[in-house]
Fold this protein.
Amino acid sequence: MTHPKYDTALNNYYKKIADAATEDMVLNMGPQHPSTHGVLRLELITDGEIVKEVIPHIGYLHRCFEKHAESLTYQQTIPFTDRLDYLASMNNSHAFVMGVERMMGIDKDIPKRVEYIRVLVCELNRIAAHLIAIGTYGIDIGAFTPFLWCFRDREHIMGMLEWASGSRMLYNYIWVGGVFYDLPVGFEERCAEFVTYFKPKMVELNELLTDNQVFISRTANVGVLPLDVAINYGCSGPMLRGSGLKWDLRRIDGYSVYPELEFEIPIGEGKMGAVGDCWDRYKVRVDEIEQSLKIVEQCLGRLQNELKRTTDFDPRSKMPRKITPKAQDYYVRCEGAKGELGFYFMADGKSEIPTRVKCRAPSFHNLSVLPELAKGVMIADLIAIVGSIDFVLGEVDR
Amino acid sequence: MSFEEIKLLLIEKFGEGVVVGEETTGLQPALLVAPDQITNVCLELRNNPKTYFDFLSSITGVDYGVEAGRFGVVYHLASIPYKTQLTLKISTENDRSLDNLPTFPSITPVYRTADWHEREAYDLFGIFFENHPDLRRILLPDDWDGFPLRKDYKAAEYYKGIKVD
């Protein structure tokens, strides 16, 4: 028996859909629609071509991350974090590992070479994630070629990360206190080769897609997200920067070795239309790829010179035998590929298993603004808006 | 503004009863707030030009265990102009019956992003938020029985007559 007030919202929702079905049209987009980038179901209440309301239904990919994390040790949870935002797994494990290290008080002891390796693989992974965002966004709008080009270039990164970690997408490479193995011999050279190869490809991509008049017409002035709305909805990452705010946790918090690296924070400037439209969000991602390449180059420079590999270097030397942080709560946040990725730990001080782990997923917040963005737009524009949000359902549903 | 100053500011504005305690042993201090005041506290912290916590990072539902018989909610606020962070906690005692869910006020009027987070806490912990515009389950199906992240949750043997292994 449950109290009837707990069912009020559900009954209101059923009534709303029943009413809409007689006056307007209720249209289901998903959960198997290609433009929803995964298993997202959008229930649209439409008046002809105009979208009156969007009701997102999520949870199709719910894999009980938080429940798993409560029954496994910290180290055992790392592979599960890879499966949150499965397009940028390195960034997820990095955030999780950083939180645990700070709780253990060993975050200052991590060898510099390990930190640079972490940042290098994270930035490579960020490039790969943004390439998918750009490529699939093109295909949503109707441009097929950029998709193929992006996937061709992404494959180089996947290959390199597979070389380092043994896995193509779900790496389990960054561990508490170190990394799985040192980079394979020749990795730095191969990576430098990739950067030289990739730079002109970005110029080509810009010519093909970014400055394409058809693409601009479809995205400029569409889905404009004002800055105050973005902040109130907790949007972060390229979504928030697209609305014109210089907010990047790599700079704000300055974690890992980011304070030693030089890079800029691209923001939406409203070059083709209003600030915070779909084109701005897209452009921020393109610019971020260039900045990430800059970071990769700097990391490679350090890794090949002052932090050169030595035969006695052990990336696991600082790894704690037993991870039992003292009793405390800790919220760690870092800049994932999609925005502010946070983990909240509650440790009781006795057990190797946390009592509570909460994952603050950026896509979850970025997607929650969709009903606001999609009020009164055309159905075709809705596709453009959904694509520009660039969410990963693995992270939304956790 | 430092943690102590924020505490004094809230006491000055809402009286002694608003802050029921604090946790300062860990790396991040947390302020324990009276549950019925949480919406006002968040509104004040967001609008006051000295604090300006305009960004809600996350809302975490917590089950403190069967013996403790407590449920709580943790709020992580961040200020974009001041680059500061703050943790607020509220909690209440509860007997775990499904007729009587732990109830807190919703902060959706202050932060719109709280909408989905409170739905998630309701979905997984059975924490009810008063005055929430649309408190349905979000990650699990609407007809799910029980609240899976509670410490006393037992996985069901059958789902719609199908045996679950």
